[in-house]
Write a structure and sequence with these properties.
Elements lengths: L32 E14 L12 E13 L2 E5 L6 H7 L7 H4 L12 E3 L5 H4 L9 E5 H7 L13 H12 L3 E4 L4 E4 L2 E5 L8 E7 L2 E7 L5 H6 L12 H14 L6 E3 L5 H4 L7 E3 L2
Parallel strand pairs: 3-4, 4-5, 5-6, 10-11
Antiparallel strand pairs: 1-2, 1-12, 2-3, 7-8, 8-9, 9-10
Length: 285
Amino acid sequence: MTTRCAFAVAVVGVLACGATLQAQPSHSGPPYEVYMVRFAGFHSFPVSELVRGADTSRRTDLAFMVGVIKGNGRNVLLDAGFYREQFLTAWKPFDWQRPSAAIAKVGLKPEDITDIIISHIHWDHLDGADLFPKARIWIQKAEYDHYVGSNGEPLDNAIDTVDAHMLAQLHRAGRVQLVDGDAREVIPGITVYTGGRHTYASEYVGVQTAAGVVVLASDNMYMFENLAKHVPIGATYVPGDSTSNLQAQDRMRHIASSPRLIIPGHDPDVFVRFPTPGDGVAKIE
């Protein structure tokens, strides 16, 4: 696929979230700490590709970030960012650093990461997965099977060829754990949910913290504006599928202990609303 294709190219579907809303499973261990770590930005992106129906003249900066979940002997990433030259050349992000270097801001080295939960297969969330040599990769089985062929070839143009090959290599090495379905507690106190329909089986994450359950939405909710105005994202697997995305937003409200603890995938305001400790790091509390 071309690396300069629309950032919000439509890609997914998985199970609709349905009428039954599962609460976050109980967790008897200590609560986790959750941080968002910014590793790059992008200037002047069309808001209408993020918030459906927005004025087409509106522009906003994007934040590229990874979630860091620390506790119970685990250092877990939500998504892995990107680092390959083809993406840097095509997108020209500002203030970019390798995600594996950016996590030093929360006291971690690449080899400290025990797990990576991949929300979906887009390059800016998947590409850096092989930067973390000891991490187990968690991804929805339906997402993997839809996009990655038996020889590592891309089965859909939403996944870049190099990333499909990389993910298949990690799978052959025994480092990929395929998650079969919705509301799965993949690690004690950390549960993944499907239904946002950004890609074929995109997922988002609920985490037990001292402040309650935090929901890391990734691109199932691009901006705080999506939730505040109850407006769907601009890119869904089935074009124009507002119903599934709004159902996912409603479900996030049910899962999270507070709406303020629902964290979107690309909103730079994350670092304004959660200013501590600063320097591109937001502790969600």
